[in-house]
Amino acid sequence: MSQRKNLSEKENNNYETERLIIRPMSTDDADLILELYNMPNFIKFIGNRNIKTLSDAENYIKEKFLPQFEKSGFGNYLIVLKEGNQKIGGVGIFEREGLDITDIGFSVLERFEGKGYMYEAAQKIKSIGMDDFGLTKISAITTKDNFSSQKLIEKLGLKFQKYVTLPNEDAELMYYETD
3-class SS at 116? Predict the structure, then answer.
């Protein structure tokens, strides 16, 4: 799994794009996680994480997101609109069980879909992973019926490779990878 260089800690870094601020997810973002992870499309395409309260969301961040930042220096980032300072979604690079190559993932509140924010955020995170953390390849997974994610993954320059099933999961997923 060690596809990255030994670099200084990056977990406190905030990044910017033309319209977005991208910063490491923290327990202060439990409100967004609660809303995001209970959207019907999130549950349909990504899965039900059984987050029903703010406390559940805080615990999920503490158990899933913060340890990866501590271990790898990268993980799940909050996406904030510069205009209006609104939290709109998450994007990250993850060391996921069942995948040999670090993968990129993203989710956005439905009211912000179709505005190009996820491409802007995912492109930035992809370049951070490769340039700042020395990842030589990045992968992505999505369900067979999540056409908008497939389109975004391909726009990021990843190519479909095969179908995979992650440990303890039933669904066969589409697996993409950079060249």
Answer: coil
Give me the tens of pLDDT residue by residue for the chain, a chain 179 residues long. 434 333 333 445 899 999 999 999 999 999 999 999 999 999 999 999 999 999 999 999 999 999 999 999 999 999 999 999 999 999 999 999 999 999 999 999 999 999 999 999 999 999 999 999 999 999 999 999 999 999 999 999 999 999 999 998 888 999 999 98
174 alpha-carbon distance from chain centroid: 16
Query: Rounded distance, CA 148 to CA 145, Å?
Result: 9
pTM over 0.70: yes
Element at 152 (helix H, strand E): helix 147-155
154 vs 163: CA distance, rounded Å: 15
Q: What backbone torsions phi and psi does residue 101 show, to the nearest 5 degrees?
A: -115, 135
If you search the block for the tokens 């030589």, which residue do you land on?
A: 136
